[in-house]
Specification:
Layout (H helix, E strand, L loop, with lengths): L4 E5 L6 H10 L5 E4 L6 H13 L3 H4 L2 H25 L3 E4 L3 H11 L19 E6 L2 H15 L9 H14 L6 E6 L4 H15 L7
Parallel strand pairs: 1-3, 1-4, 2-3, 4-5
Length: 211
């Protein structure tokens, strides 16, 4: 029996990746917690060339080009890593998926490039979505704390105006998805958010060995 695909949604700073890591440590029955976006197969080739040839990709390549590479990597990872896990009967929890990419495309890319996201239609639809509903101020505080710890700078997609647009996009797209997307309050302390997700999975039957 094919496993179930569960996706965590929400704006930057909503706690998706942190909770995913905690879910991984929770050892949920018959479930793999992973990502289809971290192993950036095609983007890594660009990053490698950037280091070896000593150039800055921003000076030579548009964000549309990088986004096309990103979509290619997601499709590659899904077909070569995630879908085989699902076909083996195990459930998979991802912290981002197709809707996240579509939202980025809608907000940050020229409208003529929206067709690029059509390639994602070859991927399976989730069986369940969990939307991390968080206030913008809460998200910003988490992003600032994370960047301080990691020594990273604020990405343009993490600015307040970008977060507002992303939240609006989520709210407008979620009602039209053809699978259930359940909402949780992600403003709470992150361990509480983690517990809420576990309880939701328990109540919907997604943490049982056999679904």
């Amino acid at each position: 029996m094919r496993g179930k695909l569960i996706v965590l949604y929400g704006i930057d700073g909503s706690g998706k990746s942190t909770v995913l890591n905690k879910l991984r440590e929770s050892n949920i029955n018959n479930t793999i917690c992973t990502s289809c976006m971290t192993n950036s197969v095609f983007e890594e080739e660009l990053y490698s060339a950037e280091k070896q040839l000593h150039f800055n990709r921003i000076d030579y390549f548009s964000k549309e080009f990088k986004h096309m590479l990103h979509i290619g990597s997601v499709i590659y990872n899904m077909h070569n890593s995630i879908i085989p896990i699902l076909n083996s009967g195990k459930n998979v929890i991802l912290d981002r998926y197709i809707m996240c990419i579509s939202i980025f495309t809608n907000i940050f890319l020229d409208k003529s490039y929206a067709c690029i996201s059509k390639a994602l239609e070859c991927l399976p639809s989730p069986d369940l979505g969990i939307y991390f509903d968080v206030e913008i101020d809460t998200a910003i505080k988490r992003i600032q704390k994370r960047n301080e710890i990691n020594g990273t700078s604020l990405h343009y997609s993490e600015r307040r105006d970008s977060l507002v647009l992303k939240k609006e996009q989520y709210e407008s797209l979620i009602p039209y998805e053809e699978y259930s997307i359940l909402r949780i309050d992600a403003n709470q302390e992150i361990n509480t958010v983690h517990s809420s997700v576990l309880e939701l999975l328990k109540n919907t039957g997604f943490n049982r060995t056999s679904l």
